[in-house]
Amino acid sequence: MTTTTAPARLGARRLGAAAAVVAAAALLATLLAAAQPALPSLVPGYASWGLGYTDPTWYAYWILGDTTEPILAKSALGGLLMIAGATLAHVARRRGRRWQGFAMACGTGDLWPWVLVAAGMGLLASNLLWGWTLGDWQPTFAPLVSVPPALVIVYGPGWRVASTGAVLGAILVTPIALVLVNLVCVPMNLSPVVGATLAMSLGGLAAFWLCRRLPWFPPPRTMRTSPPQGVDEPPAPARYGPSWVPRRILADFTEAHFYGNEWAGAGLLLGCVLHFLLNPAATAYGSGLLPHLLATQVLTAACGVLLWGGRWAANGWYPTFVPIVSVAPATVLAFGGTLPSIVAGAVLGAAVAPPLAAALARRLPDDVQPMVAYTAAMAVCTAAIIPLLGLLPGFHHV
Predict the structure, then answer these.
(1) Which of 80, 229, 268, 286 is most buried by its number of CB atoms within 10 A?
(2) Widest pairwise Cα distance in the chain
(3) How many CB atoms lie within 10 A of CB 343?
(4) For residue 282, what is the DSSP state?
(5) What are the boundaries of the signal sequence (predicted)?
């Protein structure tokens, strides 16, 4: 008679929890796709979006949409509810509520308001400086999830850090992204995700190099080799059971924003779905593929926590979010949301991107935030996996 070990039982329970989440996401995506032809157009579609400096309404609409660019959703309502969810989690943390969720801002918790301020200032500066390029889509969102919040994590709170990060993000990351996307990715038929994420990595390296030499900058805070979530509590096997799986899946949707919280992730997903219901052509760049994107991202997150749950339990952190905001959704958009593209993007991304990101992060100096490594891994995996899939039967670029 075979005796089932405790780790095997735990793995089976995690698998069951992940399967339930994936099944729920697949059902929701199927229902949304089926209802799409009958849905109204109560809000403007993506084709009517533009960055009008003299129109405050459209300006705010575009910038809020930029907050969901990391998951390729381009949804103003999604961005608004994501920030609302993060605010709820922050208030709950300050009041000591047990339901606060994972600590935000790389496990620091209290740095989240400054992450929000720095990222928001960087996004505003990027759009003010480079909005004139928006004849078509451009990566104006790039500072939001790169240099400004990363500097806050390394150097701490304060207006000096936040404003410097915003300026560096706008003058380093965005122009590099514009060059890479338009002069490299477009001619070579690469996903723009490659150019945008590589720009974040290169711009981040340049920014951290400069910050060592800025006389008004404080010394860096003590940095860990990687930013664990829930760092205030030591990892314990019980915390990585089946209930942890859906929470981690939700939180991974906002790790790129330096939130990493399930309330923020739930707000993001709810807002994107509501925006889709108001007008299917308003989200995901007007492609109508938001249900397919969310399905593959949930599948990717589930595969990530199943494949790398042991690393989470051992280290308290592992970058399973990396493919969720890069290769998985980019594969769906590249191949039109077919079932093979959904499954392949999710499985390959979850298998390859997190260990590459972790390996690169281990090689960074302590005063360089691992964002530099994670975005490099995003670029490499997206640039490699999508062209390889394009060589296979059943994968046709759209």
Answers:
(1) 268
(2) 75
(3) 15
(4) G
(5) 1-35
Between CA 353 and CA 38 the distance in angstroms is 38
Cβ-based neighbour number of residue 64 at 10 Å: 20
Helix axes 6-35, 290-315, angle to 10 degrees: 160
Q: Is 338 left (phi over 0), alpha (psi -120 to 50) or beta?
A: beta
User: The pTM is what?
Assistant: 0.92
Query: Which residues contact residue 317 at a Cβ distance below 8 angstroms, ignoring those fewer than 6 apart?
Result: 107, 226, 227, 228, 229, 231
Q: What domains does the chain contain, in order, with CATH numbers?
A: 10-39+49-390 (1.10.3430.10)
